[in-house]
Fold this sequence. Notes:
12 copies of one chain form a homododecamer. By secondary structure, the first copy, chain A, is α+β, with helices and mostly antiparallel strands.
Amino acid sequence: MENNVYKLIELTGTSPDSIEDAVNNALKQAGKTVRNMRWFTVEETRGAIHENGVSQWQVTIKVGFTLEP
Amino acid sequence: MENNVYKLIELTGTSPDSIEDAVNNALKQAGKTVRNMRWFTVEETRGAIHENGVSQWQVTIKVGFTLEP
Amino acid sequence: MENNVYKLIELTGTSPDSIEDAVNNALKQAGKTVRNMRWFTVEETRGAIHENGVSQWQVTIKVGFTLEP
Amino acid sequence: MENNVYKLIELTGTSPDSIEDAVNNALKQAGKTVRNMRWFTVEETRGAIHENGVSQWQVTIKVGFTLEP
Amino acid sequence: MENNVYKLIELTGTSPDSIEDAVNNALKQAGKTVRNMRWFTVEETRGAIHENGVSQWQVTIKVGFTLEP
Amino acid sequence: MENNVYKLIELTGTSPDSIEDAVNNALKQAGKTVRNMRWFTVEETRGAIHENGVSQWQVTIKVGFTLEP
Amino acid sequence: MENNVYKLIELTGTSPDSIEDAVNNALKQAGKTVRNMRWFTVEETRGAIHENGVSQWQVTIKVGFTLEP
Amino acid sequence: MENNVYKLIELTGTSPDSIEDAVNNALKQAGKTVRNMRWFTVEETRGAIHENGVSQWQVTIKVGFTLEP
Amino acid sequence: MENNVYKLIELTGTSPDSIEDAVNNALKQAGKTVRNMRWFTVEETRGAIHENGVSQWQVTIKVGFTLEP
Amino acid sequence: MENNVYKLIELTGTSPDSIEDAVNNALKQAGKTVRNMRWFTVEETRGAIHENGVSQWQVTIKVGFTLEP
Amino acid sequence: MENNVYKLIELTGTSPDSIEDAVNNALKQAGKTVRNMRWFTVEETRGAIHENGVSQWQVTIKVGFTLEP
Amino acid sequence: MENNVYKLIELTGTSPDSIEDAVNNALKQAGKTVRNMRWFTVEETRGAIHENGVSQWQVTIKVGFTLEP
């Protein structure tokens, strides 16, 4: 097991459909500039309401990625 | 940006199928008597078990709505 | 209402697909050795990342079951 | 198991005698206007002091009740 | 010391100017329909940003008021 | 002071009468199969409501006991 | 309403009998050296186990008292 | 950097005007008997209500001061 | 409502005068390099003490800004 | 990545010397009966005092291990 | 088991070397004026940085000691 | 005291040997690209297990550094 150092960043992904999609949208967007993402934790789940239903899921996650030496 | 005042109420929605459905069921029911619901936060996710599987998702949310002046 | 005593155990279920599946996988596995499971609470939601998307949902739950007298 | 929606309200009951009495006093008072109360959780226990002893127990609870469809 | 029962409601007040004003705005608005408000606790402080400065303070409080017997 | 290792288990005891009884009921039941129980911490206090009063106290505790070498 | 300053101290009271007694024992003892105690909050409830029952309740409280100008 | 030991005390300051004044009032009062106060953290903000507005801000802080060797 | 992804960064702003100024100082400084800041949450309020009064307010906030696609 | 199910157990390890030793002592003892231990999290660090120094470190951890299918 | 009352005080110990030393330094210093210290809990671990390494460990603990009757 | 603005980043350092080494490894690595690091707080301590002992300490810290004006 390598003794790496990891950095954690916090992101809020959104989706009209589900919590899972909101997380994947955040990772997809972050992946454009961040490499070596390894794990995430869900920190908060909230959303916007329109016409008595959820119009947008907003999920805040922390993402850990390996710092390259 | 208007300087509104919002009230928050806490609800537990239930669904046999998913966390998302449980939240939507809570909002749909609350919408019968509450107007101007704007946002929600998920406070707790729990459920009932039957035959070694989830029989009911129980999701507690806080809902914010605009107080009419 | 019977005055039972319940024991709580903590499990982490995993799934490539959804939070709901991860919970059900944990319950299914635990049900092989634990009887009388009644309720669960979601304690933590996290996961592994592969190619800028969620490769595995990891959901930690507490499960309550009746202790047989 | 019916897929009801529940509302949670927060109350502080008081009693000169015990934590249990403070909770029951809150439920008794709330029951005058709220129907279908099902469960409660104790959120905070505090109190007032007089002559080096507890003069009043103040127990804050959340109460869940069924929203009628 | 009377053994009253209190109800707690949660409000978010807003103000372009200060945390204190946001709380007072919430209390002023709530006072139109709620009587006997006695105390509050600050639960969360957040806000909106415009042109690199705070455009709106949003302060969520819990307010306790006496339930009339 | 011996350098023992302890295991902690989580239990929910119930009682129609008091928080103290609910804890003692949990310990009495657990004591049928667990030896060397030393301390407990109260993790959560909740209950069921019937006719505007507490019908059952439900107290969740963690119990520490010595692992025998 | 006077604009006093209060100091808070933290105490653990104990009792073989009940949570309420443990709190009162702490206040009685503290009252020998502290004047003007006004309120307390319960911070933690734990205890010792003997023969599968509670042998001692240990309740940690914070106590607020007026600082004399 | 000296390897000092610090003690932390907890205080509640009050003010009719602002959170900042409540903290300063607590420090001013404590400074009559405590020397070498270095830093504080805000632990809780609450207050009293009169005529639908804040009549008193009550801010609880922890204060760290150097223990003299 | 667009399904954006947001990044959150954590900052500590300082001011000799007030909590509000400390937050605005953090935003002003961050705005030199970060675009599209939308909201903030106050995470911690602390400060330095000099001559029995607050010499510096130190307010830690999280700031959310839109990630450009 | 296999979609395993994990169980978490809670242990308190002790040592007169260090936090690290207390954790290792807990794992060594648990390993006599538990297989496939994979990760741990430190939940609480406390200890006993003798003659104005630490006589025993008491570290509570959660340990995750693979449930065999 | 005697039904003592305990007081808890909060201290921050510091050390250039380790968490364990920081705790022992706090206890040694406190022991000059406090008698009958029995247990401690670690509340927070932080530190100062110099030249990309830890220059000082700062560990905040609560210490419980017996109040003499 | 200068009224600087600080940024906080979150890192996970690892070490086979100790919590202290894991923190220092994180700081050493971060120091390659971040200047003016001033303080850190330990947010979480966890680790990997191999052959019934700790094979890797994983310590998550927040690091504060001065933003250059």
